[in-house]
Amino acid sequence: MMTVAALGCHRLMAQTAVGIEYATEMQTDFRNLNWVHLLRLRFSRTWDKGIRFELGTISIAKTRSERLVNDRQVFSNIEEENLPVSLSVAGWSFNRGASSLFAGLRNLNEDYFTSPVTSFFTNSSCGIFPTIPANYPIANYPLASLGIHYTYRKERWEIQASLYNGRGYDGFTADNFLFRFRPASDGILGIFSSNYQSNGCSYHFGGALHSGSHIGKEQTEERSLSGIFWGYVEQRLTEKLYLLAQYSAAVPSDVWCRMFGGMGMVIRFGRAEAGFFSDCAVFSGEKEYASELTCRVTFSDHLSLQPAVHLIQGACGFRIISLIRVNINL
Questions:
Q1: I need a labelling partner for 227 at 20 to 30 A (CA). Which of 9, 116, 160, 162 fits?
Q2: What is the pLDDT of residues 113-163, one digit of tens each?
Q3: Cα atoms found within 13 Å of the Cα of residue 36, Cβ hemisphere only
């Protein structure tokens, strides 16, 4: 009922926007099945002088309590524990010229690692390098936390900077409260990214500092100041062929995930895209190699179909996972 009412408002008020994103994914390791669902609802209201209120919810459901494979990098970027409803965004943004400032509840996935080629793949590592979420309990999907986010766009440049509470949450209880801001115990996360685009190519460099607890080599929480830096390139080789290269490392290296690197290619033809990506993540005492072969067919502005095959070699052994994902956007 709330969704229907919001869609009615969308027609009546030109400055109000409503969006629905639904992804459903069937996974198999050729022995078991898992069916995952992700629903995102978005609402925004813009006033004069560039003031906008943003609200986003997230709901997750799956049929299998355990993942098909306990891989370190997580082969599916939508699978998480069942979550009836949580907030991904709730706050105010202020736009003036080339600058934009957001204050409120937010997660990193709204702004970082969202370029077209990285967001094409279904694995988690393309969307945010494992040196970040594997080491820090930060506001990474499906978690969010209070903070401020600044964006500056000028011609081919985009610069982003954020300050977040050092730990992310997804609930409304006392010990898991989304709007909790506790820098003394949770620490602070500072993150920065500089992006340059030219002739269909994009170049990204960034880094982050975290002052709260991180996951150490023995997979126990340790508290100290530590950081990550990263860079990735989306290089257009021809009109339809793109090369993707990524690298990230932790400083100092006394964290669980020390290094990550990957390369891939994407080719586009008509309403279809196909791509291959392969990476290596270095964890304490082990390495994990993961590859993905995928394609996506876009039937309309609202519907797409994406099958994928994942090959994983690491502490879980050698595993093959196949999935097919349907995306619906309204």
A1: 116
A2: 988 899 999 999 998 999 999 999 999 999 999 999 999 999 999 999 999
A3: 23
